[in-house]
Amino acid sequence: MENKFGPLLKEVRRSKQVSQRELAERVGVDFSYISKIENNRLAPPAADTIIKICEALEVPSEVLLAHAGKVSSEMKDAITASPAAVRFMNEIKTMKLTDDEWGKLSDNLKKLR
């Protein structure tokens, strides 16, 4: 499967009119690191770095995290702290939900509160 994270990062960065050097400075990495990620010469960074990138670009972290196949350490902690949450995630994993179905599930969960 082709890594789509790098091209998406490039697209988002350019849409925000931020140079690689400026983004690297904001995130605290070398600009060549950003270049290598955008050109798929490196795998997507760790979730915490992706979150810093999103903060620097002022975009929600969900999209970039999803394209990298990662979740934040905060999310991982929330899920793994509860056996019921782990069971729930294991059950829905087999369902192969679409984005629309995930949205509906989220809406229904909000109604429970």
Short summary:
With 113 residues, the chain is mostly helical. It is built from eight helices and no strands.
Query: In terms of structural class, how would the helical and strand content be classed?
Result: mainly alpha
The radius of gyration computed from the alpha-carbon positions, rounded to a whole number of angstroms, is: 16 Å
Number of domains: 2
Q: SSE order in H/E notation?
A: HHHHHHHH
Low-confidence region ranges:
none
Q: Share of helix among residues?
A: 55-70%
Write the layout of secondary structure elements.
Layout (H helix, E strand, L loop, with lengths): L4 H11 L4 H8 L3 H8 L8 H11 L3 H8 L4 H8 L2 H11 L5 H14 L1
Characterization of this structure:
The chain has 2 domains: 5-72, Orthogonal Bundle (434 Repressor (Amino-terminal Domain)), CATH 1.10.260.40; 82-112, no CATH class. The protein has 113 residues and is mainly α. It is built from 8 helices and no strands.
Salient structural properties:
8 helices, mainly alpha, 434 Repressor (Amino-terminal Domain), single chain, elongated, 113 residues
